[in-house]
Amino acid sequence: MSTDQLLTLMAYLIVAITAATMIFGVVAYFLYKIREKRRAKTGSSGAENAKEIEKKGAGTPQNMRYFVRRRITL
Amino acid sequence: MAKGLILLPALCLLVYYGAKHITEISAGSDPLTKAGALTILIFSALVVSRYLFLLLFSMLNLLANILRKEPAPSTHDLPFVSVLVPCYNEEGVIERSLESLMTIDYPSYEIIVVDDGSVDDTYAVAKAMEFNDENRSLRVFKKPNAGKASALNYAIERSRGELFLAVDADSRVSPDSLRLMAPYFKDGRVGAVAGSVYVVNTNNIWTNLQALEYIQGLNLVRNGQAFFRLVNIVPGPIGMFRTEAVESIGGYSDDTFAEDCDLTLRLIEAGYGIDYEIDAVSYTEAPESLLDLLKQRYRWTRGILQSSLKHRGKLLAVVSNPKLSLLLWYMLFEAILWPAVSIAANLFILFTSLVTGMAQMLVYWWIIFTILDISAGIYCVSVTKERIRLVFYTIYYRIFFINIINIAKVLATAEEFFGVEMSWGKLERKGRI
Fold this sequence. Notes:
The complex is a heterodimer.
Chain A: H1 3-42, H2 46-56, H3 61-73
Chain B: H1 2-26, H2 31-67, E1 81-87, H3 94-102, E2 109-116, H4 122-127, E3 131-132, E4 136-143, H5 148-157, E5 163-166, E6 171-173, H6 177-181, E7 190-199, H7 205-226, E8 239-242, H8 243-248, H9 259-269, E9 273-284, H10 290-310, H11 322-356, H12 359-383, H13 394-417
Parallel strand pairs in B: 1-2, 1-5, 2-4, 7-9
Antiparallel strand pairs in B: 3-4, 5-8, 6-9, 7-8
C-alpha cells in the first residue's frame, strides 16, 4: 500500500468516526430527552418523585418500597 | 512546571510545521480545497491559541504560587471553618462522605449537614453520625425540599466559621484540603478558593474520559484563570468561601441551575478575587452512562448560560468592572460560540475533504490535534495527582468525547433560548466514593 493510499484510508476513517460520533451525539441527546420525559410522567426522579409520594401519604416505608420497586421496573 | 516550559515551544513548532504543510498541500488547488485548508488553519489556530494561553497562565500561576509560598501557618493562625454538606436523597453515599470529612487534618472545624427534604434515609444515616468534640462537631438538620441553594443558605445561617467549605454529599475531600485552602484568605481581597475535582469511579470509557476532561478541560482552565484571581466557577464538590463576603451579597441564589457559578460571578462583581488550590482535591462520582452524562451537562450548560445572562448588564462594564466584563465575554464564548464553531468547522472540514479528496490535509490536521491533546494531557497529569493512564484516552477525547459534549451543549443552549422548561435532574448515585 502506498503512502497516498494509506493517508486516504486514514482520512476516510477519521471522516467516518467523526460523522458517526456526531450522529451518535444527536441521537443520544434525543434519547436522553425521551428518557427524562418518561421519568417526569412516571414521577421516578427528583421533585416529581417527592410530589407523588406526598400525594400518596408522605414517606411511609410502604410508599418508599413502592417507588423503589417501580423505579427498578422502568 | 519544567515539562510545561519544554512543551510550549515544542507545540508552537509543531503547529508551525503543520500549518506550513497544509498550506503547501492546498497551494494551487481549487477554491473549495483552499477554503477547507483555510478552515483547518483558522480552527487549528483558535484551538492552539486557547491551549497555549491556558498552559501559559496555568504555568505562571504555579510559578507565582511557588514564589509567594509562605511557611505553613501554625495551628493558632488557622481560623475556625464550617464544612457545609447539602444533600438530597444521598443515603447511598452520605456515610462515606461524612467519614471522609471527619478525617480532615485541621485543628478546629464543624460539619453541618442539611437534608433538603430527602425521601430516602439520608437524614437518619447522617443523624446517627452526629457528634460534638472540643474542636470538631457534626450537626445534622432537615428542612422541606427547596433546592441546593436554599440548603446551603440554611447551613450558612447555622455556621460559626469565618470561612466555610461547601462540598457535595457525593464527594470525598482530601484530608489536607482545609489546611491548603484557608491560608489564601489572609489576603482580604480573596472571596473564595476553588479546589480540584477528580473522578473517583474510573471504571468505564465514559468515566475515564470525564476524568481526563476534569483535569484537562476544567482544572487546567481554573489554574489559568487563577493567575488573574478570576476563577469563574468554584465547583460544587469543593469550594471555600469567606462567610462575610457571601453574606454581604445575599448568599446563594436559586434563580439559576448553576448556583455555584452564579455565586462566584456575584463575588467577582462585588470586587472579590477567586483563587484556586490545585492540591485541595475532591473525589466525586461521575455519571457512568452516556445518558446520565448528558443529563449532567444539560444542567451545567443551561445553568452557566443562565448565570452569565443574569449578569449581562455587566458585559459592557469594561471600565467600571473590567474583570467581570472580560470573564462574562469569555464565558459566553466558551458556552455558546466555541461548541457551535467546533461543530461547524468539523462538518465543513469533513465535507471538503470528502468532496475534494484532500486526504493528506485531513490526516495531518488530525495528527497535529492528537499530539496537542496528548501533550496537554501529559502536562495536566504531571501537575496533578491523577493517573498517567488517562493520557491514553486523549486519543478518543477530541474525535469522540468532545464532539458529543459539544452537540449536547449546542442543543441545550437552543433549548435555553427557546425557554424550554427544565428541572434540577438529580443523578442516581452508585455509591462509589
